[in-house]
Amino acid sequence: MTTEASLNILIGWLQDNINCGTEIIFDNDENNADSATLLPWIEQALQNVRDLRHLQLLQQTRTD
């Protein structure tokens, strides 16, 4: 499974948690990092992975 596919699954799961009102706390009771807090960070990670893959493809075409 690719990193991109894994992040997509995680994004879907976090969105489901938000839609269902699930109150999972991922770090501790002080910071209260829940699904809504994590979702934008995971979406950014997905975008970063896509950008990196795009840059790798550009680099590969330059060297071919």
Structural features, described:
- The chain is mostly helical and 64 residues long.
- The protein has a domain at 38-64.
- The chain is 73% helix and 0% strand.
- The protein has helices spanning 3-20, 35-63.
- α1 packs antiparallel against α2.
- The longest helix is centred in the last third of the chain and has 29 residues, at 35-63.
- The mean pLDDT is 94.
Q: Can you give keywords for this protein?
A:
64 residues; mainly alpha
Number of strands: 0
Major sheet description: none
| Rg over CA atoms | 16 Å
Order of helices and strands: HH
Task: Based on Cα principal axes, name the global outline.
Answer: elongated
Structural class: mainly alpha
